[in-house]
Structure formats: C-alpha cells, structure tokens
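Hey, resending since the last one bounced:
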Amino acid sequence: MGDKPRSRSRFLATNLLVLLALLAAAELLLRLSAPRPLPPATMPPVLDVFLPVERDGETWMSTDFNSQYETDGVPLDAELSPQEKQAITRRVRPLLEFPREKPPGQARVFVLGSSPIWGHIGATKDDHTLLALYLRERLDPARCEIINAAHIGFGAPQVLGTADEALRHGVDLAVVYFGGVMPLLAPEVDREQLEQPPEALRRHRLLSRSELVRTFFRWRESKQEPEVDPQLVPAFSPGSKPLSEPTRYDERAVNVIKNLQAETEHDYRRMFTQLARRFTEQKRKLLFCTVATNTADIRPFWSLHLEPIGPAEREQFAALYRQGQEAVAAGDYDRAAVWLEQAINLGPTFADAHFGLGRVYRALGEHDKARAAFRRAKEYDASNERALDRPNEILREVAAAYGVPVLDVETLLRELPASNGYLGDELFLDHQHMNPLAVQALADALAQRIPTVISE
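The structure tokens again:
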C-alpha cells in the first residue's frame, strides 16, 4: 500500500520533468525561428569619406575619393587634354568639400548612393551622370548646399557609413538612390551552405544575415579572387555575353541564386530601415528614390530554369525556344509569338524566352504585353547585375513605416518623350546606369521636391 503513493509521485514528477523539457525546447525553437532584431542605430561608419583640411584659417571637410576609378572627378584613363581635366575638376570639386560649420540660412543636402548617380564623367558640360552636379545647377546655392556622398562600388555598409558622416556634419536632407543588386560570392562564404534550399538555410541559421554583402565588399577592397565554381554559378559584369541554358535545371545553382536574393533583400531592408531610424531619431529629412533598370534593350545575363522541369520537358522547351528565335530572326513575329508562348508554358521561369517574347510583342505593337514580358525577363534573370522589383517594394514599405517621401524613378523615366514608354537604351548607358538625359530628368524632378521636403 505504501508503494502506490511513491509510485504516483514518481510518475507525476517524471511527467512534470518531461513537460518542462518540452516547454524549454518549444521556447528555444521559438527563439531560433524569431526574426533577428536589427542592429542598434549607432553602427560605426565603414569609411571616413570626408576628412578635415585647413583652408585660410577655416576647417573644411574634403574628399579626393570620388570612386574606385576616378580621383577629383577626372577619369584616370580618359583621353582628355589637361585643360579638359582641369575644367572637370573645377566643376566637380565643390561637390566634394564643404565648410565644417554650416553657413546660416543654407540647407545642407547630401546625395547618397551608388554608381547610377555618380559614375560617367565626360569633358562637356552635360556629358556626365553626376546627380549632385545637376542638382547644384538647378537649386539656389544661397539656400541649398549640395554635397556628393555617392560612389561607384558602394554597398549597404558604405552607404550607412556615409550617412553617419552626413549626420555628424549637419545634414538637413539626404537624397538616396541605391542600386541594391545581388552580391557576389566571397571566399569567406561557405558555398555548400548556400546550395541548401532557402527554407533550410533560414531555419538552421547557417548564414549570418547580411554577411554576403559585407564579405563581398571586403573581397572587392582586398582585390582577392573569390573561390567559386564557375560551372555552378558563373560571374557576370557589365558587357558580359549573355548565357542561355535552355536544357539546364540545377537545383544547387537555383538554391544559391535564391539564397543570394533573400540575403540581398534582407540587407536592403536593413539599410533603408537603419537610414530611416537614424535620420528620424535626429529629426533630419530623407528622400528615397526607387531604382530603374534597362529592361527593354538588355538581354538577361543568365537564363536557366529556376523551377523543377523534367528532362523531356526541357528538351521540348529548347526546341520551341529555338524555333521562336529563328522566327524572330526571319521577321515572322506572329509565328515567333506562338513558339515562344508555348515554350513559356513549359518553362515559365526561363528569362530569355520572356525577353524574346517582349521584343516580339513590341514589334507587333502590343506594348502593354511587351512591357510585362520585359519585366518578367528581368525578374527571372539569374545573374546579379540588375535590381529586381522586390528591393523597390521594400524601399516603399520602409518609407511608409517612417513617413519618408519616395520618388518613383521608373514612372518618371517611362513618361519621358524619349522613352516611348519603355526603359531602354534611350535612357541607359548599359543594364542599370542611366545616361545624362535620364539623370537630368531625375535632377529636374528632385529639384522640385527638395525644397518642399526640407520645409515640411
């Protein structure tokens, strides 16, 4: 009789321990699956872009770092005369320096971002894509001081670093245009982890958030060649020959592509959230610009199937895709539309088939269909060379959460008479870098918005 209470007590104690263990395991799983909080807003700057110099007894902030290719605004390899280089330097120099003490009655405006707004520089007055220079020509210098803090090769960490510098130096408004393209692989990144399905990668926390972008830029600065398998994920750059693989579906390569996209999207959200948080905390203004890319005249850099498709279907797809291309070459657009539509029904994620169909629709005068096909071609491009739609959506989400105004650059450019309703070679130098006409249109729109944003 006396053993029964003890047995019952042991049974209850055992069940209680099991229950506590289950609760602890559940709490641990919840913690592991919960989204990581953003790093604190006091992240130190990556670079000191502006350094103090003494000039006539006054301290100025100055930089000679204009980009990884250019110093003082003059292309190092440009075939320009000394007089032309001197003229460029005189035009650009005021954008790269400013007095430490802000003049009274003047709004200090920093331009933050990457190569689309600070890249090409020519010898003539309007032969450049320097957004800050066009803004300086359009805004009253007695009321607005325009300072460039955008550079070729800048990623999210560098943009945040220059934003911190802008806040230290009395910025009133920062205009932000950031490309947001996918990062490349770097030696520190475990490629085998990237080859896992995205769901497993996120669940097991095999990668540090944003690490891909940070390691990529460390690689760029160290000039070390990343150890990647070009057969799995080839590298692309502006001017690369498009790679089309109509019979290829490689689950490992697709996992790498999707994981890079996911990490880039996270890094993009983190950067814009940190920008909005820091400027809001210090009661400074921001103006975000969406990113526009050349969709109508640049073929996808890399086309392969991004969703499972069997070997027989891939061979059938390749035959239809080839027939469509041959029909386009022969000018038989009606037949080409039939072949390419059938191919896309079999392989809906093959980028170059959508691009070819967009060109066919454009030739047939079906412009809404053409624009939609070009956009799908860009979204399914497996390379890292053009910004996708999702970063612009993230930008708008962050802007709405913090009350930051947004300038829709895609709509702005598409409405220009020169565009004919398309984002193509009429407005771009290459896949993503706007030409002077497009940058001037952006400057016109910003020059109207900036005084309003500052005064709000």
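Confidence is low (pLDDT under 50) at residues 30-46, 66-77, 184-188, 203-228.

Sorry for the duplicate.
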